[in-house]
Every structure is written in structure tokens, then in C-alpha cells.
Amino acid sequence: MVTRICVVTGSRAEYGLLKLVIERIRRSKRLDLQLVVTGAHLSHEFGFTVQEIYRDGFIVDESVEMLLSSDSNLGMSKSFGLGIIGLAEAFSSLKPDCVLLLGD
Q1: Is the pTM here over 0.85, yes or no?
Q2: Where are the alpha helices (DSSP H) in 28-61?
Q3: Across-strand partners of 98?
Q4: pLDDT at residue 68 in the model
Q5: CB atoms within 10 A of CB 69
Q6: Collapsed DSSP state (helix, strand, coil) of residue 5
């Protein structure tokens, strides 16, 4: 049986921390990598760093747009809400056995 591990990455900083783990999951015969990209990775304002993920040879299974161009409390709350909705849809589609993400 193969276990589906869904890794969620939203910024260059945490992608750097997760990259080795993502690579090991991808190489495993017992694990199936699912990669969800969101947040700053999809923003041209923050460098559209999803391109770095593609250059590293990874396949992005789902992209979750969530960033509004607002730093207000309301804008950040709305972005968070969009992220929750988008991740729920991604997880419903991918049906992972486990989700790995970093947060602070």
C-alpha cells in the first residue's frame, strides 16, 4: 500500500526547509508525493517562486490562490479564509492520507 503525503508550501523560506523532505517523499517507493502550492509562491509581487519549484523538477498537483493585495487585518483575514476554502477543495480532490506543512 502506498501512502499519499500532501506537502503544502506557501513561501520560499519554508520551501527551502521542506525541499529535502519533498525530494525524499518523491523518491520513496512507499510514499506518493502530492504538492500543493499557495501564498507568496503564486504572487508576482513576491517573485512568483512557484517557478523555482518547477525548476527543481517537482510537479505541482494543486495551486491555491489566496493572497489579496492588502496588509490590513481585514485583508489578511480574508486571505486566510480564501486559503482555507482552497485547501479544503485541494484536499477533497487529492484525498491525501497525511498533510505536511510548516507554520509559525
Answers
A1: yes
A2: 50-55
A3: 5
A4: 86
A5: 8
A6: strand
Question: Which H helix or E strand runs over 45?
Answer: none
- Each residue of 55-101: pLDDT tens digit? 999 999 999 999 888 889 999 999 999 999 999 999 999 999 999 99
Grid coordinates of 4 = 499519499
pLDDT tens by residue, 32-53? 999 999 998 998 888 899 999 9
In Å, how far are 18, 58, 71, 100 from 81, measured between CA atoms? 24, 27, 14, 19
E strand or H helix at 56, and its extent?
none
Distance (Å, whole) CA 59 – CA 72: 33
- Secondary structure class of 65 (helix, strand, coil): coil
Q: What distances in angstroms separate CA 87 from CA 26, 41, 55, 72, one per listed residue?
A: 21, 15, 24, 22
Q: How far is 20 from 28, CA to CA, in rounded Å?
A: 12
Is the Cα dihedral 36, 40, 43, 44 positive or negative?
negative
Please give the pLDDT value at position 61.
Answer: 98
